[in-house]
Design brief:
With 688 residues, the protein is mainly beta. Among the domains are: 121 residues, Immunoglobulin-like (Sandwich); 222 residues, no CATH class; 53 residues, no CATH class; 80 residues, Immunoglobulin-like, CATH 2.60.40. The chain is 4% helix and 33% strand. Strand 34 and strand 35 form a beta hairpin.
Length: 688
Amino acid sequence: MERSRSVLLSVLILLVVVGSMSHAEIPTMISYQGKVSNTAGTPVADNTYTMRFRIYNAASGGTMLWDSGNQSISVSGGVFSVLLGESPQPALNLAFDADCWLLVTFAGVDQSPRQRLASTGYAYMASGLVPGTEVSGSVTSGTSAAVKGTNTAGSGTAYGLFGRSLSTEGSGAYGEAAASSGNTNGVYGSAASTAGSGVFGFATSTSGTTYGVNGRSGSSSGRGVFGYATSGTGTTYGVYGQAVSTAGIGVYGYSTASTGTTYGVYGQSPSTAGTGVWGAATAASGNTMGIYGTSSSNGGSGVFGYATSTSGATYGVNARSSSSSGRGVFGYAMSATGATYGVYGQSSSTGGTGIYGLASAVSGTTYGVYGQSCSTAGASCGARGQAPMIGAYGEATYTGGAPWQPMGVYGTSVSPTGVGVYGKAPDSGIYGKTESTYGSGIFGWADASTVGSEGKGVEGWTDARDGWGVFGWALNSVGESMGMDGWAGGPQGTGVRGWALSASGATYGVYGKVLSTTGVAVYYSGGLAGTGSKSCVVKTSQGPTLMYCQESPENWFEDFGEGQLVNGRSHIELDPLFLETVTIDEANPMKVFVELHDESCEGVAVKKGHTGFDVVERKAGRSNGTFDYRVVAKRQGFEAKRLDYCKAAETDSYLFPELREKELQELEEQRGRLDDERAIEGVSELTP
C-alpha cells in the first residue's frame, strides 16, 4: 500500500497475555489485534504490510517509552494480529504503573489518535476479564479478601460484585464459608452508594427453581446470607431480593446446621429508615412470597428479624403484598413437635413492632400477617401473642363503610373444635379496640349453616371462682357503644355464649357492664328466653337482694294510673305513646281493673273503647270519689303468641335434670381442652 493512501485503523482492545510468569511477575508480551480499511470502509487487500508500534506516556507529544521498530505484518480480510514484545522486537519491560498510549504506523502513515491503554496488561489478566478465565484467590492471615470487587461510584446503581447465571439450576452468585466456626460469611457485600447494593443477584430465567442469591453456611453460628447496609440515612436494604417468576423466591436462605442459633436469612440495618430484610414479589398472581424462610433446627427460625434501634418506628420484619390473594408475611413451621412458630418477631424499641404486616390491596382476601402451624400438639399456634398486659391487641381505625366491616381482631378456625381467636395473659387474654363509630373491638361470627352444628361467634370460659367467661366493658359514656357484640349465622349457632365452669361461687356465663346512666349492660334484639328465673337486684338493709319477674302465657303490656268520679262518671284517655306499643281492637280488647277509694260508692262499671275507657257509678250514683286503675293490652306484633314451643331448651339440663350427667361430661372435656391450652407456657427469647 502506498504511503499517500488514507486508511482507517479499527483497534480491537488488547485481550490475552501470553508467556510464562510467576505469581508476582509482570508479563513480557501482549496480544494486540486490529482491522485496517480504507476511507470508504473497505478492508485493504490481503498482503504483508510494514507496521510499527510505539508506546508513549501522553496522548500527544510526550516521551516514547517503547518502540517495536518496523515489522512485516500479514493482513487477511483487513484483520491483523501481533504480539508486542515478541522477539526480534525489544522486550516489553515497562512498569505499567501509569496510563500509556499506543501509536500505530501503517505503511509509513501514523494513525491518529493514539490508543489509550487505560490499564496495564497485567491488570487485565488479574481482573479475570478474559472469557473463560477462572478467578480465584486465597489469604492465610489478616483481614484481606481472597476476592474483592470495589465500585467507587458515589451514586447511581453501583455493584461491588455482580453475578449472573442463565442456567435454570445455576446461581447468580455463590459463596461458601468453609470454616465450621467463627464469624464467617458465605457472601459479604458492601456498597457505599446511597442507591447501590451490597450484593445483587439476578436470576433471569422465568421458570424453574431459580435464586437471585443462594447462600449456605455449615457453621453452627454462621449466616447463609448476611447483608449489612452501613449508610445511616436513606432507604437502605441489608439484603434485597426480587423474583419475577410466579413460582420464584425473592430471597431464599437455607441453614443446614441442625443445632445452634442458626438463621436462614439474617439482615441488619442501623439506618433509621432502613430495613434488615426487605423482600418484594412483583408477580400479581401465583403463589409468590416476598420472603420465604425454612429452618430444620429445633431452636432455629425460618425468618428472624431483629431491629436493634431502641427508638423510632422500627420493624423486626416489614413485609408487604400487593396481590389480592397474597400475604404480607407467610410463616410455616413444619416441625410436628416442639415450641414452633410460623413467624416470630422481636423488637427492643419502645415504639417498635415485633411483627408488622401490611396488605396494601384494597380488595380480595388479604392478610397483614398470616400464620399457620401443622402441629397437632396443644402448644402449636398459627399466631400467638403474649404480654404481661395485653396478649393480643387489635385496632380497627377505619371510620366508614358498613357497620360490620371494621374489626379489631378477626380469627377463623376450620376445626370443628377449634378456636377462631385464643388469647391468654395475666391481665387481658384478648383486647380489642376500634375507632369506628360502627366498628367492633372484638367481632365473633359463627357462619356454620349445617343442621346440628353448634357455631359460636364468641365463646368464653372461666374456671376462676369470681371470674367471667366473657367480659365486655363499654367505657364511652355517650354514643351507641357495646361491651360485646356477637353474631351467629348457623341454624343452631350462638352469637355470644359464655360458660362459667365453676360449680360454686359468684360466676357469670356472660357479664356486661356500662358506666353510662342511659346505657344498657346487655341488649337483646328478638326474644329473650331462659329456664332460670328472671330478676333484678335492689339494695336493701340485707344487702343486694333479688326481685323476681311475673310470667304470663301471652305477651301483655300494662299501664297504671288514677282518676276521679265527677257526679258518678269519669273518662280515662290512655297515653298516646303507650297506645303505639299495643294492639286494642274488637279481637284484642284491653283489660281494665279499677280500685275505688270512696266507701260510699256502691261500685262502678267500665265501658272500654280503643283509646280509652269510661268509669260509671252503679245505681245512678253521683259520688265524686277517686280510684286507681290498671290497663293490660296485647303487645303490638305479638297478639297471637301464646305458650310457644322452645326448641332451644330441649337439651337444657336445668329444665331436664336427667341430662345433667351428659352436660357434666361435656364440661370435663372442655376442662381438658383448657388444660391442654395451659401447656402453652413461656416463650424462650431469641437473640441474634
